[in-house]
Amino acid sequence: MFDFDKVSPALKDRAKYQENKWTRCTNGEIPMFVADMDFQTPQPIIDAIKERMEHPFFGYNSVASNAIPVIAQHYRDKYHCQCEEEWIVFVPSVMPGVNVGCLVGGGSVMYCDPMYMHIRKVADEIGVPEVSVPLKIENGKYTFDFDAMEAAYTPDIKSFILCSPHNPVGRVWTREELQGLYDFCRRHDILLVADEIHCEIILEGTHIPAFTICDDAVDHTITVSSAGKICNIPGLPIGFAIIPNKELREKFIKNTKALFSTRGNLLYGIAIKKAYDGSCEQWKEELRQYLRGNAKYVEERIAAMPFVSVNHNEATYLAWIDCTELPYEEPAKFFEEKAKVIVNPGSGFGAGKFVRLNFGCPRSQLKEALDRMERALKAVEV
Ligand SMILES: Cc1ncc(COP(=O)(O)O)c(C=O)c1O
């Protein structure tokens, strides 16, 4: 059993190795922002990479393509769905896959705020207009506002970017919600491009891959995912698209040609095979269990703090904290200056008075960050 409470002795060297989350901490700050975890990568991945790095040749190879059957089998086993090897196309990482998915859609892009900051930049990056529609809160949960989406629809919209599960609000979309979204897309001939990078960090509920929403969805969806989050290897980096429809797949590959290679690379091939061949399953389950404990701890601690409240996480290790009551315009700046805790500002997600806190770390680190935040909040004078 992996001890997630144990602080890795290698953690202190993350800044030395130029890992972004820790290089920002030059003055004793605790980094609770960049979405990677302060747990070591599962040992089977480290061992497989080490073993291969001992061999002093790095020539053309079929390591990544040989990992494709393992990914397809993982989807069949985990989601009880059809998943053919030829449906899988490697991308350098998830975001380029989402960008190209939207190029395939071919028109304006729609998504729902609050939303992961790089998804909010896709339209700009591919040079098309965008329409963002806020999620609504129903029975205390964020959900799609289909009436607002209908009202915002214009015929130039050709792609919808779904984040499933959702970063930053931590929702695991239900089949009913996904079906509603899919029906909206079909009604308007919009391509559903699903970013499912967090799909294995499910704390409650069941993840439904976009291409399995209903029988018809195999023909009208592009799903992009990766083992980057679950196995804590986003620096490798790694990503793949699942595109069952041949015509869409060919368009996708054609659109990648001027941009990047889809053959994957050596490190990526080694890591992704180990991530999905069963070697890391026990570690993943133990991680999820630990993160459930951290999510509960965050909820309990935030509930006892003034000015802030936190959304309930069904997925991800990212807590979405409402700071609207805090008398400061930039809550993330407040936490960095007064608590020495670095969180993501909500402005990047389209919600200025929120912050996102990463709880993918040992409990002791989380406790220290929350202690500091609580002290800073209690010292606020109104
Ligand atoms: C929803 C979402 N998509 C994509 C990414 C980035 O993926 P990649 O680094 O593989 O491009 C992240 C990273 O935090 C994310 O949260």
Keywords:
four-stranded antiparallel β-sheet, globular, seven-stranded mixed β-sheet, 382 residues, alpha/beta, binds pyridoxal-5'-phosphate, 12 helices, Aspartate Aminotransferase, domain 2, single chain, Aspartate Aminotransferase, domain 1, 15% strand, 15 strands, 2 domains
Would you write up a description of this structure?
The longest helix has 23 residues, at 281-303. A hairpin with a 7-residue loop joins β11 (309-310) and β12. The model has no long low-confidence stretch (mean pLDDT 97). This protein is α/β, with parallel strands linked by helices and 382 residues long. The chain is built from twelve helices and 15 strands. 35% of the residues lie in helices and 15% in strands. The relative contact order is 0.17. It has two domains: 11-42 and 281-378, Aspartate Aminotransferase, domain 1 (Alpha-Beta Complex), CATH 3.90.1150.10; 65-276, 3-Layer(aba) Sandwich (Aspartate Aminotransferase, domain 2), CATH 3.40.640. The protein binds pyridoxal-5'-phosphate. Residues 35, 93-95, 116, 163, 167, 195, 197, 226, 228, 234, 237, 239 line the site of pyridoxal-5'-phosphate.
